[in-house]
Fold this sequence. Notes:
The chain has 123 residues and is an alpha/beta fold. The protein has one domain: 3-Layer(aba) Sandwich (Rossmann fold), CATH 3.40.50. Helix content is 46%, strand content 19%. It contains five helices and five strands, in the order βαβαβαβαβα. The protein has helices spanning 11-23, 34-43, 60-69, 85-94, 106-118, and strands at residues 3-7, 27-31, 48-51, 76-80, 98-101. Helix 1 (11-23) links the parallel strand 1 and strand 2. It is globular and about 30 Å long. The two termini are 25 Å apart.
Amino acid sequence: MKTILAVDDDPAILKVIRVHLEKAGYRVLAETSAAGAIERLDAEPVDLAVLDIMMPGTDGLELCERMRATGRRMPILFLTARGSSIDVLQGYAAGAQAYLTKPFKAKELLEKVEYAFRAEPGL
């Protein structure tokens, strides 16, 4: 079973992500901050990360860049309310394989997760 780390400062969004991904057969770890995500990544293996961009403190873009700087090669999907073309390009430049904007449909999330698993992790 593949493990997905979901990071969002909104517990309600994390619950929705968890429900849909677990229903699809994934194990989901949830964190509400970048600091918590880093601790989790250091503690156990993760196959894919779903990151929000707008979080207090360290945002999702910086978290993604830190993950890449430390050699973590798992696919990364941004799931965020920021949807301008500049935001999307910044997400890919930070090292993401996929980008999805909120609000989202469960099917879209699952398709983006599957796409990210197929994509070559960029560094």
